[in-house]
Amino acid sequence: MCGSVKFQITGDISPIEICYCQMCRKASGGPLSANSPVKSDEFRITHGSDAIDAYESSPGELRHFCSRCGSPLFSTCADRPTVVRVRVGTINEPLPVRPVASYFTGSKCNWWEIRDDLPRFETE
Asked: What's the pLDDT tens digit per position in 31-49?
C-alpha cells in the first residue's frame, strides 16, 4: 500500500487459490484471502527488504508483511521451502490466471455468501 516493498516474479504465476480459513481471514481483514503459489527461486524482493517483517501464525508458517503500512505481502512455510504464496492483491499488473478453487469453505464467516462456481473444499 505504501510502496516501500517491491518484488518481482520471474516465472509463471500459478492459478489463484481462494482461502476462507480463519487465519487468512484475520490476516487479510476480510472474508477471504486470494493467493498464488510461486516458486521461491522465481520470487525476488527488488526494493524494501528492510521494511518486511513476519509473524509466525502457526509453527513454521510465516506471514510476511510491510512493517510500515501493515499490508500482507506473502507467506512461506517451512514444510514447503520451494514455494512462496503471494497475496495477489499486491500485484499491480494484469494477471494471466484466475481463481481455480476455494479452500476451507467449512470455516468461512457466516456473513459472506460464496456466489461463484469454483470447486469448494471444506478443509484443504
From this structure: 999 999 999 999 999 999 9
Consecutive H or E run containing 24: helix 22-28
**What are the chain's domains?**
7-109 (2.170.150.70)
C-alpha separations of 69 from 28, 112, 122 in Å? 13, 26, 32
- Among 51, 76, 56, 45, which Cα is nearest to 1's? 51
Distances (CA, A) of 9 to 36, 39, 108: 11, 9, 30
Q: pLDDT digits over 56-71, tens only?
A: 999 999 999 999 999 9
> What is the gyration radius of the CA atoms in the chain, in angstroms?
14
| Residue tagged 505481502 (cell numbers) | 73
Query: How far does CA 58 lie from the centroid of its chain?
Result: 15
Output the pTM of the full model.
0.91
Cell triple for 112 = 459472506
For β-strands 120-121 and 99-103, DSSP reports them as: parallel
